[in-house]
Amino acid sequence: MEIVDIQKIIRPHLVDVKTYEAMEAPEALAKKSGIPESEIIKLNGNENPYGGSQKALDAVAKTPLHIYPDPTQTNMRIALSGYTGMPSENIVVGSGADELIDLIFRLFISEGDKILDCEPTFGMYSFCARVAGGEITLVQRDEQFDINVPSVLNSIDDKTKVIFVTSPNNPTGNIATESQVTDLLSTGLLVVVDEAYYEFSGQTVQHLISQNENLIVLRTMSKWAGLAGLRVGYGIMHGKLAKYFMDIKPPYNVNIAAEAALIASLEDVNYLLSNVEKIIGERERMFELINNLPRVKAWPSSGNYLMCEFEKNEAQRVYVELAAKGIFVRNFNSPRLGDCFRIAIGTASDTDKLIGAMKIIV
Ligand SMILES: Cc1ncc(COP(=O)(O)O)c(C=O)c1O
Fold first, then answer.
1. In a 3-state reduction of DSSP, which class is residue 194?
2. CA atoms within 13 A on the CB side of 70
3. Is 228 touching ligand 1 by the criterion CB < 6 Å?
4. Top CATH class, 54-267
5. CATH for 6-39+270-361?
6. Could you give the CA distance from residue 241 to residue 239 in angstroms, rounded to a whole number?
7. What's the pLDDT tens digit per position in 4-60?
8. What is d(CA 230, CA 58) in angstroms, rounded to the nearest whole number?
9. For the chain, which residues make up each domain, given as ranges?
10. Is the pLDDT of residue 264 over 90?
11. What would the mean pLDDT of 83-90 be, rounded to a whole number?
12. Distance, CA 136 to ligand 1 centroid (Å)?
């Protein structure tokens, strides 16, 4: 039988698609550095150093795994309505905020349509655009990494469908102001404000949703609630738009353990927010400590991470030397962030070890 050349039947725009540069798993990092997994300091994924709530762990342990989850997401939407103060029909839950980003592409982007990204930013929007066969307009943020609204407005053309705004921005930590978002909404395009790190900033534009059918706010349980491994996030949007998402999503998209953990976490909000407070305090302490080191600058951040900028060509050397000591941060290969890396905020002991190492290396 003749061997089929599978490339001939793959959709042409996906044959050489550039994949997402995801971070490596802890076991891979351990293997690479030769340091036991239990000794690794993993600060490359903006994960929560305190883990999830005990109530969530208990709820997961009791979950009947042989039953499909509720496709209408009723209990999760009610719980999230209580937490966010938004009506449950305005909420759609996904397998991570990542799934909602993917669903946005399914709903809005046909081949050749454009999305607009405010660079540097989270890589998932452009990755999903590549997979969808969309085009990406990259609009550079200003020197302070704030959104350049006039430049965004000038870059829109009749193929542009969606503007992505990350607030706090990953990896730079900037907030998009309400007036910036309002200016973008007035274009009539879909504006996605990704508030994955909302709990660390306390700033949201969710109150603009009732007046703006073209606004989606994204949130996640991965960061503040420590559920990154379970994959659960949500979108808040006008009820009319939420109905479309509910209609096109895979029916059982959020697994039953994630559902149980989300609901239990929202019954333990005070505990989880006390961890958020600790992380914010640690962020400010690390900010001072790094800025007291020579030859490196930490940028101010409203997230659970700090972006550090080094002298020319130094970031990669410091990254490699930290990794050799079992301390893993996130580096970038984009031209604008080539001299930077991002450090997730861990425990006080993680900070002390990191700073100790940086004092020797930098
Ligand atoms: C800005 C931003 N949005 C979304 C996500 C993905 O969140 P989730 O884990 O819910 O898929 C991340 C994860 O790092 C992020 O940084």
1. strand
2. 12
3. yes
4. alpha beta
5. 3.90.1150.10
6. 5
7. 999 999 999 999 999 998 988 899 999 988 999 999 999 999 999 999 999 999 999
8. 14
9. 6-39+270-361, 54-267
10. yes
11. 98
12. 19
Any ligand 1 atom below 6 A from CB of 194? yes
Among 161, 159, 166, 214, CA closest to 186:
214
The two tokens of residue 113 are 């349509």
In whole angstroms, what is the distance from residue 342 CA to residue 306 CA? 6
Residue type at 253 in one-letter notation = N
Q: Across the chain, which distance is largest between two alpha carbons, in Å? A: 68
Q: Is there an atom of ligand 1 within 6 Å of 198 CB?
A: no
Pick from 20, 128, 217, 222 the residue to mutate for probing ligand 1's pocket: most ligand atoms within 8 Å of its CB: 222
Q: How many H-runs (helices) and E-runs (strands) does the chain carry?
A: 13, 13
Beta carbons of 168 and 175 less than 8 angstroms apart = yes
Looking at ligand 1, which residue's alpha carbon is closest to its atom 12? 196
Residue 97 beta carbon below 6 angstroms from any ligand 1 atom: yes
Torsions phi, psi for 223 (to 5 deg): -95, -70
- 233 CB under 6 A from ligand 1? yes
CA dist., res. 347 & res. 323, Å (int): 18
Distance 97 CA to ligand 1 centre (A): 6
Alpha carbon distance 219, 86 (integer Å): 13
- DSSP summary character for residue 207: G
Question: Rounded to an integer, what distance in angstroms lies between the CA atom of residue 135 and that of residue 143?
Answer: 25
In this structure, which residue's CA is closest to atom 7 in ligand 1? 97
Tell me which of 28-37, 88-97, 164-173 is least confident.
28-37
